[in-house]
Amino acid sequence: MRIARGQLIAGVPALQARAVLRAIAGTPGHEAGSAFVAGYIKTSESEARLILEQIEDAGYVERSTPGGDWWKPTATGMSLQAATAMKPLKRSTAERLVRGLLERADEVRCEAYWLWKVHWIGVFGSYTTNAESLGDIDLSVSWAPAMEDEAAFHKTEEQRRRETDRTFSRYRDYLYWPKTEVKQFLRNRSPYISISEHPPEDLSRVLGVQLRILYHDTAFCSLPRTYLIPKNSETGGPALLTFCLQSRGSLN
Q1: How many CA atoms lie within 13 A of 200 on its CB side?
Q2: How far apart are CA 33 and CA 200, in angstroms?
Q3: Which of 25, 34, 180, 214 has the CA that lies 20 to 30 A from 138?
């Protein structure tokens, strides 16, 4: 989904509407109250509630309980929160960006520094079509902790949080920093690479998307069979996908 600067959605600036949806979708339960949204988009609670009501009328959010002040995104709203306002991306450029990301995923696998490892990477959205002009590269990542000992892992995560020189405006950002730094490394500052905050099962349940597997580290458990796709050109998917699957052995 693409949006443009200056565009209005339900009478709300498109970028602001997207920010509201991202605020809600980014919470653990994918729902939030108007006070939380107000803090996220830096406006008053009454203004945030008005915006929520406007995009509710347009079908982008719905109330968690009838008449309540907690909201959750609809399938349409989930599409909006992932929308891009950037210039279209050429297929050849997208494939180059994905190749670089997969190389970095292998670096994460091999280097002891990273506390979260990539189990597998799935792609959805315009990249899975035959279109030559894409919006962005929508990815979903299944993660695995680098240590089997849970207590030792949490202790090491906390040490990593304390060692960083970054400042965090929200405790949640501080809490998730060890995984966030892996995401940042994978993205390599590309504005076109979007790593979803939602686990694959949520994407499937809320958006009904079908993920195509780009990367699979067989050191972890096997892939969920519902996400497997045929490994040949008859799928209509990009050649890169077939290459990545074949390069890591059979996934049948």
Answers
A1: 21
A2: 25
A3: 34
HSE-CB for 70 with a 13 A CA cutoff: 7
Same domain, 172 and 209: yes
What CATH number does the domain containing 73 carry? 1.10.10.10
Digit-by-digit pLDDT tens for the chain (252 residues) are 778 888 999 999 999 999 999 999 888 788 999 999 999 999 999 999 999 999 999 999 999 999 999 999 998 898 888 788 888 899 999 999 999 999 999 999 999 999 999 988 989 888 988 899 998 898 989 899 999 999 999 999 999 999 999 999 888 899 999 999 999 999 999 999 989 877 776 766 666 667 888 888 877 654 443 333 333 334 343 333 333 333 333 333
Domain of residue 108: give its range: 89-247
pTM equals 0.67
Residue 3: inside a domain: no
Q: At what angle do helices 45-57 and 34-41 cross, to 10 degrees?
A: 110
In this structure, the number of other CB atoms found within 10 A of the CB of residue 158 comes to 12
Q: What's the token pair of residue 86? A: 């950037």
Residue 112 backbone phi and psi in degrees, to 5: -70, -20
Is 37 inside a domain boundary? yes
Other CB atoms within a 10 A radius of the CB of residue 242 amount to 17
Whether 159 is in a domain gets the answer yes
| Distance from the Cα of residue 43 to its chain's centroid | 25
If DSSP codes are grouped into helix, strand and coil, which group holds residue 20? Answer: helix
